[in-house]
Write a structure and sequence with these properties.
disordered C terminus; single chain; mainly alpha; about 300 residues; disordered N terminus
């Protein structure tokens, strides 16, 4: 009988078109994140949601991957750095407490785009970079969102974007240095350890209430376990550049999830900003493949 980890790694049925797997992954991630923001009132704040999400996602990954602890110092330090970047990515929840969901997530997703652009030497990527910078600037301009955006929210969103850029670099390093999905499971668990004290300080015993645990498990599965499996199956049937372009739709999906699940309406200027960053991300992915860079685009694999 196959283990849970082996079953999770199997490609989805060929009856499901591979592009739909990527779109499903994108929708799951942003739906799970939006539902996480909807739990702020129930849990007691964003730090409680982060602790719940990372803690339950870590337990799920431990059950699926059954990882072994690294025996050498270099591997241990790499996993700790990887997990710290994952914890930093979840600063997006602190940004969500001050910003519309679509705005916070779009700024966060600009982190991998920035890493990809900084590594490039082509003038076309510089043009895409200017478009992304322009889109980000539209969020920060006074009066473009109906009401001024919180400086604290913008700061947390930028911090999460920087962490997501570091996550991209560290995930590549981890993938080339260590085998299997065990390192990811250990890194998520370390991220949970880092976040748990802050979550307990903010939410206390509410984190242990059965309805809260059930809702948190749903968020963890939607925003982590399920999209990872869908993406893995898609990458086995599609070129990574196609997956990367489809993943560039994540800012649009975030804006839609904020509208449908949270009732957050974005202005026309904010949608224009999201469109600029989405187009820049897709253009960068295609440009890297046209230049023979391979899977270095910002969306080529989570």
């Amino acid at each position: 009988m196959a283990s849970p980890a082996e079953r999770a790694d199997r490609p989805a049925s060929p009856a499901v078109p591979a592009p739909l797997l990527v779109v499903g992954s994108v929708l799951c991630v942003q739906t799970g994140q939006a539902l996480g923001k909807g739990l702020f009132g129930t849990v007691g704040g964003p730090l409680g949601v982060v602790a719940l999400r990372l803690g339950l996602a870590g337990l799920v990954l431990l059950a699926l991957r059954r990882p072994r602890l690294p025996t050498d110092r270099r591997s241990l330090l790499l996993i700790l750095a990887f997990g710290t970047a994952i914890a930093g990515m979840n600063l997006s929840y602190l940004a969500m407490a001050h910003l519309p969901f679509g705005v916070a997530m779009t700024i966060q997703l600009s982190g991998p785009l920035a890493v990809s652009l900084l590594a490039s030497r082509r003038w076309t990527d510089a043009a895409w970079g200017m478009l992304a910078v322009g889109g980000t600037a539209l969020f920060a301009l006074p009066g473009t969102g109906g009401q001024p955006l919180s400086p604290a929210g913008l700061a947390w969103a930028v911090a999460s974007a920087l962490s997501m850029g570091a996550y991209l670099l560290l995930s590549r390093r981890t993938g080339t240095t260590l085998d299997g999905g065990g390192p990811l499971a250990l890194a998520v668990c370390w991220a949970a350890v880092l976040s748990l004290p802050f979550g307990l300080a903010q939410s206390g015993t509410r984190l242990a209430e059965p309805p809260v645990l059930l809702a948190g498990l749903g968020v963890a599965l939607l925003s982590a376990a399920l999209p990872y499996s869908l993406e893995l199956a898609a990458l086995r049937r599609l070129p990574a550049r196609v997956v990367g372009v489809l993943q560039s739709l994540e800012p649009v999906a975030a804006g839609g999830a904020g509208l449908v699940l949270l009732g957050e309406r974005l202005t026309a200027v904010q949608w224009l900003a999201i469109s600029c960053i989405t187009l820049a991300s897709a253009g960068t992915v295609l440009g890297h493949w046209a230049g023979g860079v391979g899977r270095d685009g910002p969306g080529a694999g989570r």
